[in-house]
């Protein structure tokens, strides 16, 4: 068998691997309806975006104690791109019973 016949499939395989690259960043939607984050717990990767969609007629926040805060106006959405790995618990500043969690992997 000629060497080229062996190398060609290898090169084709390598091209496939290079084309695949890292997974593209995702947008993960969290709905707020009647004072509940849903799903309450989500998993994401660094670079992904969380988008909160507020179906309620009043404002909410996604607030991390000592960290970030996102204001989500009534009947609107707001988003945040995750910059660091780790698990974060968040709550709504106006309704502290509203709780959510994001687990971010590298
Ligand atoms: Cu709220």
Extract low-pLDDT stretches: none
Total strands: 9
Strand order, largest beta sheet: 2-1-4-7
Summing up helix and strand content along with how strands pair, one would put the structural category as alpha/beta
Give helix % range: 10-25%
Beta-strand share of residues: 35-45%
Ligand list: copper (II) ion
Distance between the termini: 44 Å
SS element count, helices: 1
Average predicted local confidence, pLDDT: 88
CA radius of gyration: 21 Å
Biggest β-sheet: count, sense, barrel?
A: 4 strands, mixed
Gross geometry: elongated
What is the element string, with H for helices and E for strands? HEEEEEEEEE
Ordered list of secondary-structure elements with their pairings:
Elements: H1 3-20, E1 27-32, E2 37-38, E3 41-45, E4 49-54, E5 60-63, E6 69-72, E7 77-81, E8 86-91, E9 99-105
Parallel strand pairs: 1-4, 3-9
Antiparallel strand pairs: 1-2, 4-7, 5-6, 8-9
The chain binds copper (II) ion.
